Amino acid sequence: MLIVAAYGVLIPGITEPVLHIVTTLDKAELAHLGKDALLGSPEIPGFIKSIANDLFNSVTVSGTVVIQDTAKSILDTSETLWNEGNRTVAAMILFFSVMVPALKAGLLILHYGLSRFSWAKSAGEISGALSKWSMADVFVMALIISFLAIKASAGTSALVETNITFEAGFYFFLAYCLLSIAGSQLLATGDKPIQ
């Protein structure tokens, strides 16, 4: 049942957004930087600087503007990477997060669904060997590290603010990893003879 539940949460885990990144620009800080750059420029005549200074001082600028609002799933990220020419990375993400789990599921169905055939046992052995190559848990760790890295660098500027949150896809994919590991462990101990 754990394996079935794992594959049930895998689909939303790869199709739902994983991380949501919102980057905003502070208009007041941008206006202040613009004023400093304009008034500090040696090429601009003094009378224009005086007019610009009066103009900047008479205008109140406030608020923020969103310059990036991105929420992508694992499949969306792979597609973006592919389209931007990062085909090796896109292929690896698809292979380890989609193809390996699908192949494992097919092998487990063969192993347990057709166990009366002698060749079905080898499907279970291949699935077990393939589990060692499943990088889903590593992918979850990479997402957590990315989250922490973006979170750590988000507060470094008064001009730009970046907020990042985990979305539903991350939790579904994490659930897939945990359920798959637990289910595989139970299947592995269930296949061993009791001594």
Notes on the protein architecture:
- The protein has 195 residues and is α+β, with helices and mostly antiparallel strands.
- The protein is 68% helix and 12% strand.
- The chain has helices at 2-15, 27-39, 46-58, 74-83, 87-113, 119-131, 136-153, 168-191, and strands spanning 19-26, 64-72, 160-166.
- Strands 2-1-3 form a three-stranded antiparallel β-sheet.
- Helix 7 (136-153) runs antiparallel to helix 8 (168-191).
- It is rod-shaped.
Features:
single chain, 3-stranded antiparallel sheet, 8 helices
Binned, the helix content reads 55-70%
Order of helices and strands: HEHHEHHHHEH
Class from helix and strand fractions: alpha+beta
Task: State Rg.
Answer: 26 Å
Instruction: State the major sheet.
Output: 3 strands, antiparallel
Strand coverage percent: 5-15%
What's the average pLDDT? 80
Shape: rod-shaped
Measured between the Cα atoms of the first and last residue, the distance is: 25 Å
The counted number of beta strands is 3
- The strand order across the widest sheet is 2-1-3
How many helices in DSSP terms?
8
Uncertain runs: none
